[in-house]
Amino acid sequence: MLRSEPPMPEGAGSELDQIYRKVAWRLLPFLLAAYGIAYLDRINISFAQVEMSRDLGFSNSVYGFGAGIFFIGYMLFEIPCNYLIGRVGVRRMVGGIMVAWGLLCCVMAFMQGPPSFYVLRFLLGVAEAGFAPAMILYVSRWFPARYQGRVMGLLLSSPFVAAVVGGPVSGLIMKHMDGLVGFQGWQWMFLIEGVAPVVLGLIAFALLVESPAAATWLSAEERAAVTADRAGGAPEGRETRFVEAFRNPTVYYLALAYFCLAFAGYAVTFWMPTLIRSAGVSDIGTIGYLSALPSLVAVISMNLCGLLSDRTGHRVRYVVVGALLSAAGLVLIPMATGNLWLAMIALCVGKAAMNSANAMLWALPNTYLRGPEAAGGVAIIVTVGVFGGFLSPILIGALRDLTGAFEVAFVVTAGITLLACVLTPLAAKAAAARVV
After folding, report:
1. How many CB atoms lie within 10 A of CB 247?
2. What is the tens place of the pLDDT at every residue in 387-403?
3. 59: how many CB neighbours lie within 10 A of its CB?
4. Which of 27, 34, 198 lies closest to 107 in space, CA to CA?
5. For residues 161 and 70, what is the distance between their CA atoms, to the nearest angstrom?
6. Is the residue at 1 inside a domain?
7. In this structure, what are the phi and psi dihedrals at residue 283, rounded to the nearest 5 degrees?
8. What pLDDT, on a 0 to 100 scale, did the predictor assign at position 232?
9. Which end of the chain is more exposed for a tag (fewer CB within 10 A), N or C?
10. Distance of CA 132 to the CA centre of its chain
11. Distance from C-alpha of 88 to C-alpha of 154, rounded to nearest angstrom
12. Residue 253: exposure state from Cβ atoms within 10 A (0-12, 13-18, ≥19)
């Protein structure tokens, strides 16, 4: 099994740690806020579901398709956007994407029925395509593999920090602003939560620089040290090209594993408020608060796994164990109808485990791939993976309409999650064979 930690340059540990700490304090607060807001704008329809569906006449199938069609736009434009990152730069890509999707989120407040719902969700996916790969590649430019577990744990847990805050805030907006100047609570939620990415997008243009070599806030010695360390920690071998990722089996194993984890993750995310409601909670404000608890547990779990995996140099075992625990939680979730305590335990275990596995999975591409091939690989992994985000809400909604309950849908989801336990070790094996 490949280890994920390259050797530290001799005698440079303490000095480099101080420099990377400086880099982290400069960049990570913005990156974490941006990534968290992206997630919140993607899933805030889950909080609006009941009231929005009532006002606009949506069935579970209509809601599921609208939630999932986001990922069709995302998938169609993912690889082209990732290719463009190298041409226009991360700063322009991230800034432009955030402004575009924020404006579209605001426009969702004015949708009238299923057609406009589908169109706006599709366009939101188009607008957001390229954002996650840009962020992951940007992190890889600044932090070597030995920090990837902690950094990816932080980055990928930021959406759940946003959910911890955003769940209650969404609930309070919908509860207390309902009817204000003739707008429903869910309309106010879309308007208010669409402003934040516009502001952050404008900040991105001023704050982000493309690489350590261009960071004027580092001294010349610090820039040279980070650049040399990043070059020394890259995977060995000849220079790669973007298209080589399409011929690398490691990429496809990781992509399919991400598909499995994304399928499970969005099954919980898009239906969590409904699941809590079925456990006996009717007040939308209380649902907002309770929906924050699994996200809070996930944040703690993801960052703990990131720290431990950096210390051991292993990632794959954390993905496997996380997927196993997630499958167990998913099986318990639909059994908790009318039992709030069991529902919350199952949601906390399922969400924390699956998202810890996902964070450790995303520490692998920057270990197994290099250069332009890494950009192509990340694009493929995200494109295949987010298809799980498209299928998941559609399948869950259709099976619930068909059976009248969640049991069958979540058992199927648990089975899909278990496949990640096989695919991730295969990715490591393929990567090891390629190095040899």
Report:
1. 10
2. 877 788 778 778 777 87
3. 12
4. 198
5. 22
6. no
7. -75, 125
8. 57
9. C
10. 7
11. 26
12. buried
CA pair distance 335, 339, nearest whole angstrom: 9
Q: What is the mean pLDDT of residues 406-412?
A: 81
Q: 9-33 burial by CB neighbour count: b if 16+ within 10 A, else e?
A: eeeeeeebeebbebbbeebbeebbb
400/409 Cα distance (integer angstroms): 7
Domain span at 357: 13-435
What is the CA angle 30-263-255, rounded to 5? 75
| The length of the chain, given as a count of residues | 436
pLDDT tens per residue, range 138-175: 887 888 777 877 888 788 778 777 766 776 777 778 77
The token pair at 47 is 């909080």
Count of CB atoms situated within 10 Å of the CB of 341: 9
Count: domains in the chain: 1
Which amino acid belongs to residue 394? I
Structure tokens, 131: 């954002």
**How many alpha carbons fall within 13 Å on the CB side of residue 200?**
22
Residue 231 domain-assigned (yes or no) = yes
Q: Which residues of 401-428 are buried (b: 16+ CB within 10 A; e: fewer)?
A: eeeeebbebbebbbebbbbbbebbbbbb
**H-only helix segments in 208-339:** 220-232, 249-278, 284-312, 316-332
- Residue 216 dihedral angles phi and psi, to the nearest 5°: -70, -15
State the SS3 of 372-389: HHHHHHHHHHHHHHHHHH
Q: Contact 73/129 with Cβ under 8 angstroms?
A: yes
pTM: 0.71
User: Cβ distance 427 to 250 under 8 Å?
Assistant: yes
CATH label of the domain that carries residue 343: 1.20.1250.20
